[in-house]
Design a protein that fits this description.
Structural class: mainly alpha
Membrane topology: Multi-pass membrane protein
Protein name: ABC-type Fe3+-siderophore transport system permease component
Oligomer: single chain
Shape: globular
Strand content: under 5%
Order of helices and strands: HHHHHHHHHHHHHH
CATH class: Mainly Alpha
GO cellular component, one term: plasma membrane
Organism: Nitrobacter winogradskyi (strain ATCC 25391 / DSM 10237 / CIP 104748 / NCIMB 11846 / Nb-255)
Number of helices: 14
CATH architecture: Orthogonal Bundle
CATH superfamily: ABC transporter involved in vitamin B12 uptake, BtuC
Main location: membrane
Length: 358
């Protein structure tokens, strides 16, 4: 299993890793358990952070029906939906990033670089501007999903089967720019100035003032997207051999692409519909896990999802504790962290391209 058996193509960082032995089973289990513990601990912190600080004991009492009425309202109706959304949205972003990187065999692939969140945001913004978001609640995620699906599908068509890093980035930037321009045009043409202001703040990405209505709105689509991507995990492993080898082993690459696009669109569309655009978590999470888990795409999916949940929970906690005169949007914080990380990856890829196989 540690022997190189075929050329994988794609990024130099992905070549030769098809059959590189992944981390030992015990290490993977330890990492996964540590991530689960991190999610639980950060959830407890998230439930306790705010204008009214709550102790872990008070939180646990409120969760199980004890404590005072005020504490139960704060925990169950204000902070718990926010924490749940941070977990599931961060999870689907990390999972989608790992799946897309496995699909195109390129470490720079992510939902945000493919334009999926920006396109989903345009679909949702269009409905908000038209005033349909509150009347037809499920119209918002459906519009976001259709727009996300279209963006990823168009990018894969433009990039082609054996895409290069340059073409992938340029196509993603073009789709992101087009979606951003369409969103700006929608705001400019909106006859309601309050709707335009709401759209502007919503596009920054936030989990503030979310309720269980938002959880119920997003969770079915996120769960369906996650299940779709997880169902293709073994095909991702085979695809790391290269398309020709995968075809010879019975993997329908075209169908794999379609299912991956559908899974990403469902998950990202559902997430963006309630949180706005939150970028770069899908790019960062898989990279944090590869040194610990290994390069097998099938084994990277769940740890990447858990890492995404940890990152978004931590970011949402940070925006509440950073001193500021107004609330910092979580999408702004993730971009401030993600952009330097992305630039670092580009520099590393350039060195790999110049020096051969990384």
């Amino acid at each position: 299993m540690g022997r190189r058996t075929g050329r994988t193509g794609g990024s130099p960082c992905f070549r030769g890793h098809m059959v590189i032995a992944p981390a030992a089973g015990r290490q993977r289990m330890i990492v996964t358990l540590a991530l689960c513990a991190g999610v639980a601990a950060l959830t407890l912190v998230s439930l306790g952070i705010g204008p009214v600080a709550l102790s872990p004991t008070t939180i646990l009492h409120a969760l199980f029906g004890g404590g005072g009425d005020v504490q139960r309202i704060i925990v169950l109706e204000i902070r718990l939906p926010r924490a749940i959304l941070a977990i599931v949205i961060g999870g689907i972003l990390g999972l989608s990033g790992a799946a897309l990187q496995g699909l195109v065999r390129n470490p720079l692939a992510s939902p945000s670089l493919f334009g999926a969140p920006q396109a989903a945001a345009f679909g949702a913004v269009l409905l908000i501007a038209l005033g349909w978001a509150d009347i037809h609640s499920f119209a918002l995620p459906v519009a976001a999903i259709l727009a996300a699906f279209t963006s990823v599908f168009v990018l894969l068509v433009i990039a082609g089967r054996d895409t290069s890093l340059l073409i992938l980035i340029l196509a993603g930037l073009a789709i992101s720019a087009l979606a951003g321009a369409a969103t700006s045009l929608t705001m400019n043409l909106s006859s309601n100035p309050f709707a335009a202001l709401e759209i502007a703040f919503w596009l920054l990405g936030s989990l503030e003032d979310r309720s269980f209505r938002h959880v119920a709105l997003a969770l079915p689509f996120i769960a369906a997207g996650a299940a779709t991507l997880m169902s293709q995990r073994h095909a991702f492993r085979t695809l790391s051999l290269g398309e020709e080898a995968a075809l010879s082993l019975g993997v329908n690459v075209g169908r794999l692409r379609l299912w991956t696009i559908l899974g990403v669109a469902l998950g990202i569309g559902g997430a963006v519909a309630v949180s706005g655009a939150i970028g770069f978590i899908g790019l960062v999470a898989p990279h944090l896990m590869r040194p610990l888990i290994g390069y097998d795409p099938s084994r990277l999916l769940v740890p990447s999802a858990l890492t995404g949940a940890v990152l978004l929970l931590a970011a949402d906690i940070a925006v509440r504790v950073i001193p500021s005169t107004s609330d910092i949007k979580v999408g702004v914080l993730t971009a401030l962290i993600g952009v330097p990380f992305f630039l670092y990856l580009i520099v590393r890829e350039r060195r790999a391209l110049g020096g051969g196989v990384a």
